[in-house]
Amino acid sequence: MAEERLRVQVAGRELEVSHLDRVLWPGDGLTKADFIGYLLQVAPYLLPHLRDRPLVCTRYPDGAGAPGFYQKDAPAGTPPWVRTWPHRTREGRRIRFILADEPATLAWLGQQAAIEIHPWLSTIHHPHRPDWVVFDLDPGPRATFAMAVEVALLVRQVLAALELEGYPKTSGATGLHVFVPILPEHPYPVVTEFARRLAGVVERLRPALVTTVRAVAQRPPSSVYLDFLQNGLGKTLVTVYGPRPRPGAPVSMPVTWDELERGVDPGTFTLRTAPARLQQVGDLWALAEAGRRSLTPACRRLGLDVAAGRPLPSPV
DNA sequence: GCTATGA
DNA sequence: TCATAGCAACGCAGG
DNA sequence: CCTGCG
Q1: Superfamily covering domain A5-119
Q2: Residue A22 burial (CB < 10 Å; 0-12/13-18/19+)?
Q3: Is the ipTM of this complex over 0.90?
Q4: Do domains A5-119 and A132-308 have the same CATH topology?
Q5: Residues 6+ apart with CB under 8 A from A32
Q6: What are the extents of the domains in chain A?
Q7: Rounded CA–C1' distance between A71 and B7, in angstroms
Q8: A198 and A163 in contact (C-beta within 8 Å)?
Q9: What integer pLDDT is reported at residue A316 of this predicted model?
């Protein structure tokens, strides 16, 4: 059977697709056609959260059961209408990051088998100043999702004491992400230091439940790893509504605190089920986007000298 | 999934 | 003509 | 210094 390439129109753009029957999620029977169809279905919800953010993709052309690879630089052959943003890394490397601002770009990423889409925490308008603080809650091998929820509620509580609001989403794997929408006022090092201190507070509240230690061997297997180090230039977490290359084709889904407290099963959010949920509950993440606040007062309360543009050593 | 490369 | 390599990245902590 | 980690 000859390889079939198809020219298709997507929202006014022309692109080529192929291998539409290739199974990307073995065991789930989900094909590349399903994947592209999903991306186009959720495009109205997804695109606003990707807009103007450099993307890092992980691609699985041979399916989620085979090795994938990261891609940052727009590959040769990228359609000319795909928007890119040239960036010079500290090491002087030039990277043309992909920006997704229209449905056709998502379809093209689907054709590229870019199963995971990871947007930066800052936009190209303020590349060095993030507009999210993120916490990645990862239950250890002997910990449960319910324990991750417990930790998320603690994070929420500490944020509330600082008059900040956190928004949770499932990670699409075993854990949770808590995102805090902030005004892009401070450079990454300040935000990282803020996150470090907040994580420290949470860890001290429940030392048996929470660990902030990076070395896997040193983490109690029954604790939840509270990772604040993803708050950095070029660091990313998987996008909201983004699928993962895991059995069941789970997606990272925003949830309400109420859903978490009621014990929602993160496994229910998949490529197959997410579109219906989006139709029913709408874009919960738009609420988060609408809630941006200054991080400055919270920094001050945690003893961070914001004016210096970088954290000062803790006065103790 | 696709291009650039070197044989 | 064909097979294959490349496709990110880097600071930070612990040892 | 090297290594593991995300």
Answers
A1: DNA primase, PRIM domain (3.90.920.10)
A2: middle
A3: yes
A4: yes
A5: A17, A19, A20, A21, A22, A24, A110, A111, A113
A6: 5-119, 132-308
A7: 28
A8: no
A9: 33
A87-118 burial: b if 16+ Cβ within 10 Å, else e:
beeeeeeebbbbbbebbbbbbbbbbbbbbbbb
CATH superfamily of A132-308: DNA primase, PRIM domain (3.90.920.10)
pLDDT score for A92? 82
CA gap A228, A10 in Å, rounded: 38
Residues 227-246 of A with CB under 7 A from strand C: 229, 234
Indicate if CB(A87) is under 7 A from strand C: no
The CA distance from A214 to A226, in Å, is 9
d(CA A316, CA A314): 6
* Cβ-based contacts (< 7 Å) between A 202-221 and strand D: 214-217
Tokens of A102: 């229209």
CA A5 and chain centroid, separation: 32
Tell me, what's the pLDDT at A33?
98
Q: What is the mean pLDDT of each run of 10 residues along chain A (316 residues)?
A: 82 96 96 98 98 97 96 96 94 92 98 98 96 97 97 98 98 96 96 96 96 93 96 95 98 98 98 98 98 96 77 45
